[in-house]
Amino acid sequence: MTQTPSTTGPLSEATTHPSVEPTAPSGDGPTDGHAGDHAVAVAALHGVDTMFTLSGAHVFPMYDGAVNADPTMRILDVRHEQTAVFAAEAVGKLTRSPGLAVLTAGPGVTNGSSAIAQAQFSGSPLVVIGGRAPAGRWGSGALQEFDHPPFLAPITKMAATVHNADDIVDKVDEAFRVAAAPHRGPVFLDVPMDQFFERATLDRPAPTARQRTEPDPEALDSVAALLSEAQRPVLILGTDVWADGAEEAALRFVEEVGLPAITNGMGRGVVPSGHPLLVTKARSSALGRCDLAIVVGTPLDFRLGYGVFGVKGEAATAKVVHLADTEAQLSRHAPLAGSAHGDLTLVLDGLRAALERQRRKPDWSGWIEDLQIHVAAAVQRDSTVLRAETDPIHPARIYGELVPRLADDAVVIGDGGDFVSFAGKYLEPKKPGGWLDPGPFGCLGAGLGSAIAARLARPSSQVVLLLGDGAAGMSLMDVDTLVRHDLPVVMVVGNNSAWGLEKQPMQMLYGYDVAADLAPQTRYDDIVRTLGGGGETVTDPAHIGPALDRAFDAGVPYLVNVITDVDQPYPRNTFGI
Q1: What is the C-alpha to C-alpha distance for residues 112 and 145, in angstroms, rounded to an integer?
Q2: How confident is the model over 492-519, as a mean pLDDT?
Q3: What is the pTM of this model?
């Protein structure tokens, strides 16, 4: 019986990757094993020590390969495939090296698709290996027979089928290299079940050095000229600054050039909380009054007004510069006064050097002092609501209690709408790499997977998962995974008994809302206790702090369920459209 060809994207034999260097044999000589053995060995060579999965017979050879590897690879099994992929994606975000999820065929793969899409939108390095109905039965209706790569092609860098066990080493190696190459993202491979069990004697690859792309020096000179002429510039640092390992270069650029900076996504913490040049709390004033916006490592999407800054009336008055890790990430919709792409450390250091060559040395002290006044005013305004004694509890009061209890190296994960928006306003990390959120795809339900990954990747750090009550309902069953694998995490639910992000806009548009209310004061802490963790419900603002202390001291997954005021929505300026 003929096999349906299923290769979508560059893993087909005729396509090459100029940006990815081929690997050489490891030098250990050919090794015998089934396809699962070889796939696990290649993943380990790329730094993988944990396989996230939900049990399925189509991928048993991967489990066997992990158990018999030397050293063994941890198998962390979850209660829903989306959690496995969200965890692997979060590993990629935190370690900047691809995480690995292994999914069984058919619904196992499709259940993971939202998390794969999140990785694509966030630029997270991720490899997903799926099972596949046997090639020898293809077309006859085997269990969960489904051609996955065409389904996943739009939300991956590459999606392909490995048709022959002899190809498994080369294809898995290529998958990891492509996932890790800028601009990072997810790669999917599936392997027919009969080929997974097939044995082959193959050379194992050796990892190669990362290839760094030099930016165009003329492009940097042009940007430096714009910056030297600006009177009110602002720098915006996004996720790819962290993902590309450019956090030190970014802070160096901010401090040596003397630029006011705003951070978003995993750019948060690159300029630490309290730094005099961090003006995120004066965001509206900075973005609304600047005459030059330099955006680094983040798209000009709805979170940044689609690249429209310095607005006066309906017209944009600010020039915009976009700096990205690859040319494909540069904005195509926003008018740009300048742009450059390449390794972001080289881009930022190169721009700093180019600015030093400019004859004009700008003085932005007045602009910076003005923004600092706005920051101080915002801090003063925030202090009142962070101490609010209202009944029901104002959501901001939770952050008034949480922020002082966070260590500098804490990992904080946001999974929710309104409640997590408050976190973005009141929580400024001290260090980079400590903030995780769904990114521009806005996918709820990612939190438990991210918490699992954070506890593994940062075993000595506090791990705090912030959940809206809507998001909590999507993933709390995987507290069972935290308990079974002994992964203590502090969870805080802002429970306003509603889909707050939808309730308020619908009332604004129609004067009423439907499909926006949840059961009042649901005891999410009871769910956690039933699954083997701990928790409590809080209705008095004075009790939040002591409850958080108990959570941090518990040594088990612990959920603090805070009943909040549904009539205190986050004061947002955009609904993402």
Answers
A1: 16
A2: 91
A3: 0.92
Per-residue burial over 403-412, b = 16 or more CB atoms within 10 Å of its CB, e = otherwise: beebeeebbb
414 and 445 together in one domain: yes
d(CA 99, CA 206): 18
On whether both 417 and 537 belong to a single domain, the answer is yes
Q: Please tell me whether residues 198 and 221 are part of one structural domain.
A: no
Same structural domain, 430 and 456: yes
The answer to whether residue 312 is domain-embedded is: yes
Beta strand segments in 311-373, E:
311-312, 315-316, 319-324, 338-341
Query: Residue 2: inside a domain, yes or no?
Result: no
DSSP letters spanning 381-400? HHHHHHT---SSBPHHHHHH
Core vs surface per residue 223-256: b (16+ CB within 10 A) or e: bbbbbbebebbbbbbbbbbbbbebbebbbebbee
Secondary structure element (H or E) that encloses residue 305, with its range: none
DSSP string across 516-564: -B--TT--HHHHHHHTT-EEEEE-SGGGHHHHHHHHHHSSS-EEEEEEB
Q: Are residues 174 and 296 in the same domain?
A: no
Nearest to 125 by CA among 240, 214, 10: 240
Q: Please check whether residue 24 lies inside any domain of the structure.
A: no
Per-residue confidence at 209, pLDDT binned at 50, 70, 90? confident
Establish if 21 belongs to a structural domain.
no
Q: Domain with 326 in it: what CATH number?
A: 3.40.50.1220
Q: Is the pLDDT of residue 16 over 50?
A: no
Rounded to whole angstroms, the Cα distance separating 319 from 338 reads 8
Longest dimension (CA), the chain: 75
Do 124 and 179 share a structural domain?
A: yes
Check the CA dihedral 518-522-525-529 and report its sign.
Answer: negative
The residue behind tokens 């600015």 is 355
Tally the domains of the chain. Answer: 3
